[in-house]
Automatic annotation (TrEMBL):
The keyword Transmembrane helix applies. Its main location: other. This is TlpA disulfide reductase family protein. Pfam families: AhpC-TSA. Keywords: Cytochrome c-type biogenesis, Disulfide bond, Membrane, Redox-active center, Signal-anchor, Transmembrane, Transmembrane helix. PANTHER family: THIOL:DISULFIDE INTERCHANGE PROTEIN DSBE. It comes from Nocardia rhamnosiphila. InterPro entries: AhpC/TSA (IPR000866), Thioredoxin-like_sf (IPR036249), Thioredoxin_domain (IPR013766), Thioredoxin_ResA/DsbE_sf (IPR050553). The keyword Transmembrane helix applies. It is found in: Cell envelope. The chain crosses the membrane at residues 6-26. Residues 51-214 form the Thioredoxin domain.
Length: 217
């Protein structure tokens, strides 16, 4: 008689294990690819955009430009998330500084581009391009940099910035994957050159721009 309870004990255990396995492999969300569904774009706090100091992006021109490798690239502006067109800025040379929030040399270099832009004035349009999907971390870094610069009595960052999550600018320039990279664009939209190294100071930036674009500052 003692063998009957043991039999039912093992039978009950087998049922529990089978039920647990069925639950583990039961389809979730009605699709076997549910885990790969793209998540909604993260909403950015307007206060974070304001704290970053990013300026409004320059307006794209609809006329007077020959097609270039950046002409069809559409990004968003860090200042307000509006569409931005890095290949349609005509009338003057454009300096595109590609960076990412995790890049330490980029962090050091960004204030140098502000210094250079202040020196160059209207002769050159300097635009930063965040080449990583995490826009919020880019804005937070810019805000932190401005806090540091303010404490040091240096000029704060107020350059226009673009969000480039798929690194389209780098790909169009056929530049290497390492950051920072600076892409030098002629007034007609063609790419004159790129510089795949950090700059030492504003004079170093000025020398590269002068050599590739013929603009002295």
């Amino acid at each position: 008689m003692s063998r009957v309870p043991v039999f039912w004990k093992w039978a009950l255990t087998a049922v529990i294990v089978a039920f647990a396995a069925a639950i583990a492999f039961w389809p979730r969300g009605g699709s076997e690819n549910a885990g790969h569904v793209a998540q909604p774009t993260r909403t950015i706090d307007p206060a974070l955009r304001a704290a970053s100091g990013a300026a409004q992006c320059p307006t794209a021109s609809a006329t007077g430009q020959r097609p270039g490798p950046l002409t069809d690239v559409v990004l968003s502006c860090l200042a307000d998330a509006s569409p931005a067109y890095p290949g349609r800025l005509t009338g003057r040379p454009v300096v595109l500084n590609l960076w990412a929030y995790w890049c330490q040399p980029c962090r050091t270099e960004l204030p140098l581009f502000q210094e250079y832009a202040d020196r160059a004035g209207s002769a050159v349009q300097v635009v930063t391009v965040h080449s990583d999907p995490d826009e919020a971390k880019a804005l937070a870094l810019l805000a932190a940099l401005n806090d540091d610069l303010r404490a040091q009595g240096r000029a704060e960052l107020h350059l226009p910035g673009l969000q480039d999550p798929e690194a389209q600018v780098r790909a169009a320039a056929q530049a290497p994957t390492a950051l920072p990279i600076t892409v030098l664009v002629r007034p007609d939209g063609s790419i004159a050159d790129y510089v795949a190294r950090p700059f030492r100071d504003a004079d170093d930036i000025a020398a590269s721009v002068a050599g590739a674009l013929g603009v002295t500052a």
